[in-house]
Amino acid sequence: MIEDSETIEEFLAHGTSDVEEAVRKAAATEIMPRFRQLAAHEVDEKTGPHDLVTDADRKAEEYLTATLGALLPGSVVVGEEAVHANPLTYEAIRGEAPVWIVDPVDGTRQFVHGNPGFCTLVALALGGEVLASWTYAPALDLFATAIRGGGAALDGVPLRSGSPAPDRPLEVATSHPDFTTDDEKRALLSLRTEGVRTRPCGSAGLEYLAVARGELDATGFSWEAAWDHAAGLLLVEEAGGAHLTRAGEPFRITGGNALPFTAARDAATAHRVAGLLAGGA
């Protein structure tokens, strides 16, 4: 836990293991016991049949909200489910207090269908800048961390995204068409060109991890929700990658981005994909 006189930098120098423990415990107590064990009454729709929430989402977020807030006095928590209940909660990302950005189950649809491709995402930000992130895929036994300026790691092993091989098409995961405007659809369709191979994205957090591991070359995402992107964007950056919006600017978790945007294994790939997205406007 941070002491009242400590700075966030001092907390990050010794407190990241406490955050990891909290994330692991949330998964062990609230998420994994419900994996492939959900009853019908434990699953609800939010905005539609592709936007689901479960008791695992709610309970894990409640646990993380209480635990993370105690670890860092004076901080606030912005969780996906809390924002769904009260959209004004999201404004804390633009505030002056340290903010924990939490997606308790990223990939809820996969979770509901018994697919292990889901994860818990936690990021710590201040003044719109992400300082640290934690990505945990409990069903896959993968835990990735990143500290701004301190690198990224997967299960304690440093991550380097590398660069795509020049002799093969870029592999790009993109937003599902159901979640895009007509303008965004046109931009994403511009990626269907020679030298690029696209597929629909799964859990955003796991797609970012795939980029950081060099298993996926880039993403093409069309929504701004910080809980989906904050942790993964820092992970990609610290692994050597880059992110750009269609306007050629880094993505801002505070919003107002020109969408779609990309996160890629290296700066050259980010510029290439962002250029294609801009051309499809």
UniProtKB/TrEMBL annotation:
The keyword Signal does not apply. It catalyses: a myo-inositol phosphate + H2O = myo-inositol + phosphate. It is an enzyme of class 3 (hydrolase). Keywords: Hydrolase, Magnesium, Metal-binding. InterPro entries: Inositol_monoP_metal-BS (IPR020583), Inositol_monophosphatase-like (IPR000760), Inositol_monophosphatase_CS (IPR020550). PROSITE patterns: IMP_1, IMP_2. The keyword Metal-binding applies. PANTHER family: INOSITOL MONOPHOSPHATASE, INOSITOL-1-MONOPHOSPHATASE-RELATED. This is inositol-phosphate phosphatase.
